[in-house]
């Protein structure tokens, strides 16, 4: 590997897309740990912590307006407005010591991970805001 390559693989565990929404479940796994397992090593030492994101329609555009919406669920041009609810779930092993306290650096890392993930999902879906 060179310095420009990631040291993490993404294992896609589940995907589902239907009228009720979309779900993607995945787990980041260290490449070196995966090579050890693929060469007969003990898989018990590989942390596989599933994460996910789900996108479900908010139902505002197709099922009437929100009680807080003075435009009857329509935008300025009169078109029905609909949106989605994005739920992002991460399982992250920050420290394997049971009594360890969360550090400011760990909290900033998690915050950056969430922000970056949401921005990438929005970009992939070509969302405006």
TrEMBL record:
Protein name per the record: HD-Zip IV C-terminal domain-containing protein
One Pfam family named in its UniProt record: PDF2_C
Lineage, broadest ranks: Eukaryota, Viridiplantae, Streptophyta, Embryophyta, Tracheophyta
Leader sequence residues: none
InterPro entries xrefs: HD-Zip_IV, HD-Zip_IV_C
Domain HD-Zip IV C-terminal span(s) in chain numbering: 4-127
Organism: Protea cynaroides
